[in-house]
Amino acid sequence: MSKPNISVVVPAYNAEKTIGLCLDSILRQNYPQDKMEVLVVDNNSMDSTAEIIKSYPVTYLFEDKIQSPSGARNKGIVNARHGLIAFIDSDCIADEHWLANGITSLDDESVGAVGGKILAYKPETYIEEYQDRSGVLWHVVSDEAHARREARLVTANAFFRKDVFDTLGLFDLRYKGAGEDTDICYAMLRHTNYKLTYNEHALVWHKHRTNLRQFCKQYVRYGYNNMFLDQKFYPEIVNEMHESADNHGVLRTFYWRFLYRETCRECCAVFPALGRYLTSFKRADKTALFDSVLFALSKIAFVRGEIRAFKEIRAVREKLTEDIRP
User: Fold this and answer.
1) CATH number at residue 70
2) What pTM was estimated for this model as a whole?
3) Which parts of the sequence belong to the Glycosyltransferase 2-like domain (predicted)?
4) Whether residue 164 sits in one domain with residue 43
5) Which of 172, 206, 240 is at the close of a domain?
6) Of 49, 51, 89, 161, which cross-links 156 as Cys (Cβ 3.0–4.6 Å)?
């Protein structure tokens, strides 16, 4: 059976350490070369990323007007010649059967997008190992998530029909470094008849954040962009938060939000984990302690990002209110 044509889109920013490995893995695919095109979008890199990309037989695109993964991916989508698009990040390495396996899930015409398996690439630090175990880049495609219209994919490894973007538009540019993939999936489940699915055989390895600073910054971005997701898809929640902030202040509002999610209780699991380790010094208890500490830090960073976004949203809201006052 003939393979369908597919466009592979790779956004890249200051990716000199990983882009070569990524492109090597794409060009080694067990897929007909005449059926695939590879578009690599340089998002105004300051290092040698551009030179490395141009040394490969791929299509080099440059995006310097919009500095974000959303803008880079949109550039790739607009220039893609084929009806199926595979997204992979510049810090990912694809299995040689990645394309061939992933594309099979799109034989089902009711499927609009497919998520592939993402594993850590040669984790060297505990933080990388934790991210692999905690599922920071896992897809959510259960029947329950579909019923709530909250199924989502991660564009570090995802296949989309181009028709999804023709119907819904491109990735939303308000998201900065996270959230745009969840946004397009939520929109697809609300405004098309397509569904999402998962293919564990479409495998890539991802180079996770290696140190605590990078780890926390990433979760700040997750929280920041999650607030814009709530504003777009659950405006009643954000409106209630505005009302609470008007009456009690932003910080108290987020303290209650923190408690409502039971995040406070979950973060406090650090203390019993510490007690178990100090009374046993077992390796398993040490791992559990480190996991609980990183979990707590991720939640605190997430809330910090939410607060920053919420303040920006309130500033815009207050300006609009002032503008319409007589």
Assistant:
1) 3.90.550.10
2) 0.87
3) 7-168
4) yes
5) 206
6) 89
